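ok so I'm stuck.
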Amino acid sequence: MESKAVEQNKVKSTAVRDGLLLVLITFAVSVMFAFVYEITKDPIAQQEELAKTTAYQQVYSDLGSTESTDELTSMADSFTEVEGISIDEALLAKDTTGNVTGLLMTVTTNQGYNGTITFALGYKEDKTVTGISFLTLAETPGLGMNAKKPEFIDQYEGQTDSFALIKGGSSTVVIDGTTPVDGISSATITSRAVTNAVNAALSFAQEVMTEGIGGLSNE
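replied:
not stuck anymore, here's the structure
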């Protein structure tokens, strides 16, 4: 009986030791990840900001500077017109002389085939889209990733009205609108996600101009 009790105590002692070891390992790993996060978060944030600034310059060729306003930020934060689409940032776009000429927006949609899609979009006071540049796009290679190709993305540039998406290779209308956009062949979900997000951004921009923010006007 005594031998059995000793053996049980050994088992309990081993279990306690293993449990404490697991706790220590878990704690050490948590500390390590926290440390890595702290030393990498600022460089990552800087890279993301640089990528966004570069995208803004790409989609707004005569951009001199940008300006953020509390009113514009509040409108972007409260934009809920389309479920799953957000205006992450909205800025006044200025020319080199400081005159406000339009808007720059960062738009995110969760309607992509493989998750979220984020892009920068420029919009001028004459109601034309100046361009689109992707910040996040992780769609299927050879299909949805073709959204980056000029033959798709350039269809939005220079247009003024809502976009109608036409299924690639057919005459089927996927999204109703005024200006036709030919979708990516075999990537209707990606095409729909991008077009819906662009239309949402246009709606937001028109609302901003109606409010006359930054001196912009839709007249």
